[in-house]
Specification:
alpha/beta; 12-stranded mixed sheet; 22 strands; disordered C terminus
């Protein structure tokens, strides 16, 4: 089980950008991509299990900054229930750092000074980091029998949610304190049994002060050392909790409290509290036991208790889990262009065509969030919210003991924000002007604002439901590609059977009718869907007089196989199939629409996912069919689009050869005439013409006497040339040729100088400020 920040990774962003840029991708030198990068939520866990030869199942979850501890809690539950003998649990954060930085800037949470200083008076925000950490977990008895090195014993993990707090970003003292009390209750410990607490503290003033207040409410007024690893390595987001656990395990092994750096001036909240931070390693005092907190955006709260292993210490056995039947008492669906479960039933049994989703309607009477915030949220969140409101109609949910679990996969559309930021560097590579850059950026979306960030955070689909319905039980998203909703269903059934939950809201959503997803799958048929189930134990549902649609058994039995035959909405695919089977057994209708009058109606759904994972679910209904599902009401509603406008980049000129611009040579000067009034030459005798008679040798008197040398000009022409003679005409012609040559040489020299100057421009000594750069100001609120 891995906590995984399901925002686009750098690979997922590059894949999406290649789809959007098309032929321009090669011109801006985008690196090669792998279609598997589109599936960066659940597939990494699947591939890790496959590579290690692990056959016990694999999935990821997202509870924001608390993800590590949520993953460890889930692993402990699987071990206690006997579903596994060894578990790997931890978390990873390798999301595209551009979106992380720009997003935290939009939220106003990024440190302007670039320093991570928890509990410091001058702390001004967090510094995000990347990382991965994994621990191997076994049941204590098994580890002792096998002679394992035991680094520590997990005594309890408390999970809670802020529910309907101030808002999705404001930390809640009550939610944090609830998680601490739950952990102590599980472990059977008192606050005084804990010697140290590793805090979540990120370096935000409000967050750090709220955490100190919640600790004070639980651990009291006694002095106790505390610390935060984020002062050393920054905030690893999903991996922050497991990093803190590794620190605690080393502290317990060495018997030393570790210091927290950068605390020369403690905050007023710390000074006023009973807690103290350390500036140097200090010998451990008190019980060898520590607490670890992790709190996530949107209301995810977790607190873990770990202690050093003592060989002779006995621990109470975990009681066996009762197998109470779990039933579905509520169902909501937005499948394709349908606006209700009734529309979904018509697609399944009446041949109604499945159209693409275009609009989602949220009744005005049910709004618990500002409409402008919902307009800026991911359509996955709003479509899921609409389905959830249908599912819970008429059902009273117990606030503290209702969990919310949502199957989810990374939304490729989130990568638009990074693409908007990168449009400038692409424009530079293409030689585009400023107008093109602005138009290209706007083609991806508007400037990033805080509601956009909250509306795309991958744990918020579950937390928004917790806030809407005022539920404070555990709440998070699960990612296992096509099995994402099935994993959420398994977790809910387990919690209900163990008695830790009295109700569960289980959902899944994916808007797969979009070009990036289709390109990754090779243009297979895809669909948009959001489905939500409300689960109860059968006895509780009967006592409450609730309509039971069917019973859920997360196992692979011998019931008849069922498949909707619909195009797949990727992360919602498994739960859509389960919902379709429930409609069939609950309404007493076979796949062809005919009546199904058997007293017991059972169907089996089996789903295979990318990366080799598979799962099966059986649904069962007894007795009479349930009444017809209500039609969607035409009440005043907030209507929102399901898909953003397609990316349409402005046109740009065709590429030009990568060489210096060609220089045009000036026309050559006109040459002087080549003929003049010279005396006609005597006809030339052929070389083969016979000589009739050899000429006689000249007489001595005919040989002229030697005269003095003739005076010559600088040009080599004699100065005493008779005017009007043939020699005078020839001399004038030579002078004209000399002048023409001089002009030609001067022109060539000028052209050569211009050529040299153009070569030097790109490699000259221009300052760094003249080069194009990509960056951001921490104080900026828009991209």
């Amino acid at each position: 089980v891995l906590g995984n920040l399901s925002l686009p990774s750098s690979g997922a962003s590059r894949f999406a950008e290649r789809v959007w840029l098309g032929a321009l991708a090669s011109r801006v030198a985008l690196p090669p991509t792998d279609a598997r990068d589109r599936f960066n939520s659940g597939l990494p866990a699947h591939l890790l299990a496959q590579a290690l030869g692990l056959g016990g199942g694999a999935y990821a979850l997202d509870a924001a900054c608390a993800s590590s501890l949520y993953a460890i809690e889930r692993a402990c539950r699987d071990l206690q229930a006997g579903r596994a003998d060894r578990m790997l649990a931890g978390a990873v954060n390798r999301a595209d750092d551009l979106f992380i930085h720009v997003g935290f800037c939009a939220l106003g949470a990024m440190s302007r000074t670039g320093r991570s200083r928890p509990f410091h008076e001058g702390a001004d925000g967090l510094m995000p980091g990347e990382g991965c950490g994994v621990v191997v977990l076994e049941r204590l008895d098994d580890a002792v029998r096998a002679g394992r090195t035991i680094h520590g014993v997990i005594r309890g993990v408390g999970l809670a949610n802020d529910g309907r707090g101030k808002n999705l970003l404001a930390p809640s003292e009550e939610g944090q304190a609830r998680s601490m009390r739950l952990a102590l209750q599980q472990a059977g410990l008192e606050p005084s049994d804990v010697a140290y607490v590793e805090c979540h503290a990120t370096g935000t003033g409000v967050g750090d002060a709220t955490e100190l207040a919640s600790m004070r409410a639980v651990y009291g007024e006694r002095p106790m050392p505390i610390g935060s690893l984020k002062a050393n390595i920054g905030h690893l987001i999903t991996a922050a909790g497991v990093a803190g656990l590794l620190k605690l395990l080393e502290s317990l092994r060495e018997g030393v409290f570790l210091p927290t750096p950068h605390l020369d001036v403690p905050s007023a909240a710390l000074t006023a509290s009973p807690f103290e931070t350390l500036d140097r390693p200090t010998a451990w005092s008190g019980p060898p036991r520590a607490g670890l907190s992790a709190f996530g955006f949107g209301g995810n709260d977790a607190h873990l208790l770990v202690e050093a292993y003592e060989r002779d210490r006995a621990f109470a056995a975990v009681p066996a889990t009762p197998r109470s039947p779990v039933v579905v008492v509520g169902l909501g669906a937005r499948v394709g262009d349908g606006q209700s479960v009734a529309d979904f039933e018509r697609v399944l049994h009446d041949g109604r065509p499945l159209g693409p989703a275009e609009r989602v309607r949220i009744p005005m009477s049910e709004l618990r969030f500002p409409p402008t915030d919902l307009e800026k949220a991911s359509p996955q969140q709003t479509m899921l919210l609409a389905a959830a409101l249908e599912a819970v109609t008429g059902i009273a949910l117990p606030g503290e003991t209702t969990g919310v679990f949502v199957g989810y996969g990374c939304d490729p559309q989130i990568a638009r924000w990074g693409a908007r930021w990168r449009a400038r560097s692409w424009g530079d590579a293409l030689g585009a002007d400023e107008a093109w850059v602005r138009a290209a950026a706007d083609a991806f979306g508007p400037p990033l604002e805080a509601p956009h960030v909250v509306g795309t955070l991958p744990n918020i689909p579950a937390n928004r439901l917790s806030s809407q319905l005022a539920l404070t039980g555990p709440s998070f998203t699960t990612s296992s590609e096509e099995l994402s909703g099935i994993r959420a269903l398994e977790i809910a059934v387990d919690g209900l059977r163990r008695g830790e939950l009295d109700a569960a809201v289980v959902g899944a959503v994916d808007l797969s009718n979009e070009p990036v997803h289709q390109a990754a799958l090779g243009n297979q048929d895809t669909a948009d869907a959001a489905v939500v189930l409300v689960l109860r134990r059968r006895d509780d549902a009967l006592r409450a007089g609730e309509i039971i649609l069917g019973e859920i058994d997360v196992s692979d039995g011998d019931a008849p196989a069922f498949a909707t035959g619909l195009p797949r909405a990727h992360a919602a695919a498994g739960l859509v199939e389960v919902a379709g089977a429930l409609v069939g057994v609950g309404r007493g209708r076979r796949r062809d629409g005919s009546a199904w009058a058997d007293a017991e109606r059972r169907l089996r759904v089996r789903i295979d996912a990318l990366g080799g994972q598979t799962a099966a679910v059986e649904v069962l209904a007894r007795g009479d069919a349930v009444p017809a599902f209500p039609e969607a009401l035409e009440t005043p509603a907030l209507e929102l689009p399901v898909h953003p406008a397609p990316v349409k980049l402005p046109p740009i000129a065709a590429p030009v050869p990568d060489r210096p611009p060609m220089q045009k040579m000036a026309p050559a000067p006109a040459l002087p005439p080549t003929s003049f009034d010279a005396p006609p030459a005597a006809p030339m005798r052929r070389a083969t013409e016979a000589v009739a008679q050899a000429p006689a040798a000249p007489a001595a008197s005919m040989v002229p006497a030697l005269a003095a040398p003739t005076v010559m000009q600088a040009s080599g022409m004699p100065t005493d040339i008779p005017p009007g003679s043939w020699l005078a005409a020839f001399t004038a012609q030579q002078l004209r040729l000399a002048d023409a040559h001089r002009v030609f040489v001067e022109q060539q020299a000028a052209l050569h100088q211009r050529f040299l100057s153009t070569l030097q421009a790109p490699f000259g000594a221009a300052g760094a400020e003249s080069a194009p750069a990509l960056g951001f100001a921490p104080s900026a609120g828009t991209a």
